[in-house]
Batch of 2 targets.
Target 1
Amino acid sequence: MKALKPLLLGLLVVVLITAIALFYFLVNLDDIVKKVIEDTGSRTTGTAVTLDRAEIDLRSGRGSLYNLQIANPEGFGDTPVIALDHITVQVDPASLGENVTYLYQVEANGARLDVVQQGTTTNLHTLLEHIRGNGAEKTPAPAPTESNDTEPLVAIKELDFLAASASLTLDNGDQHQLKIPDIRLRDLGTRTMGLTPSQLSRKILNDIIRQAERAIEKEIKKAARDKLREEAKKRLGEGQKKLMDKLGIDDSED
């Protein structure tokens, strides 16, 4: 019996420590989520990522993220390059104590992108280069893992990035408004094989920015064609006027 007492005492201490750790986690879950998003996002993008607050309801598993902003890369101004007022998430509450936190759904609706062209590049492309590792090779798709020593693991069943829009400022100061096609990602990890927040953020931001860049590239090409067309019309008009002047014809006459 005496030999059992130290063992039972040790077991009690382990249970108490676990209970305290779990209580701390549950009480501070909103702050923990906020910190993970800001720290991981900033590290991934190479710019400041900020979130006003996170609210997670443990009973229903529903959560909201408010006012997520990704700062512009250096040299592109002080306004955020990507801003989102509200993101909704649906977590499996039972997975919060597991190795992989499982999210049924993440929906980001109405994101605003502020895209600025400088020469042959844009702030969005510069951000993408940071994400890929300063423009080295294209980042391969992250492989799910069973464990990680430094970061928690997460899996997302459905992620929808909907109704996003972009304001595009060209080198010459012209501004254009355009819509970004909806992005729907599925099965980012599983219940047993999760991704770290760093892997998830790289995958999600890479897909969002690539889709946005396609729309922006089309708009830039369209703007260039329109400019050439206007210049051609102007030159044609000037040439026609010179010819009429040479012939002595007054173009104000009927």
Target 2
Amino acid sequence: MNRMDTADSTGQLRLGVVVPLANEERTIESLLDAITAHLQEDDRIFCVLDKVSKDSTREKVEDYSRRDHRVRCVWAPENRCVVDAYFRGYREALDAGCRWILEMDGGFSHHPDEIPKFIAAMEAGASFAAGSRFASGGAHQGSLYRSLLSWAGTFLTNRFLDTEMKDMTSGFECFSHAALKHVLDRGVESRYHFFQTEIRYMLRDWNWVEIPITYSNPSPGVGLAPIREALALLWKLSRQQDHAAPSHDHRAAPLHRSHHHPGSDALHGKTGPDGDPGGVDRHRGRRPERALPIPPRSV
């Protein structure tokens, strides 16, 4: 069943941007400049840092926040895995009452100039706008191995979980307040970046669109542990689906913990519009309650 938002106007803030960070001292100020250029006064940036950050990134974020009230430094030394960093940022944005929550990586692997496309999709009525590298207009700038791994992850997910997105493994995505609360209420099981796939699977029956993005990945490889975990969880979800009621209400196990690697975009995947003039791929779910309007290309 497609679910409509019931809590989008919970608070006074419009958009909260969640950015987990590690050692970004060389780029953090220019990144914040680029993000804030697309924000309004009632928007916020939640920069999440923990003990993985060994350089002056935290100090630079705190200094920037004194000059711009929209920037908040979230120090989370309790984080033990990359998923903890994202979920801490999600909770901060929800607690602040943000209507929409945009998640993106630091280090310019996700491009701030693409933020307006996500805002346009949310204004058009999307509950979940999912960044997608393999849509028309999207791109993966990195190793061929990483690109093929992401493509394979999406292919297998769509094959075994009956999902329909062109990218089931990417980050850079925007949630309505209600959609993200739904994710937090259910939780994820992955300790690595398969949590992005779990989220997209969780929101497959919401009003979603795919936004073509350009992903710039400096890391050529992915360790065996994330790949093994992704395959194991994919099999587990497929078995749960085989025995599930038609409501598709799958509750994931509580969040696991491991060493934290913010900024690695492991197992990120695909994207796309099918010739839609607005550069997004409209949700073609089985039981849509309404069609989403498409944002104009100029956004």
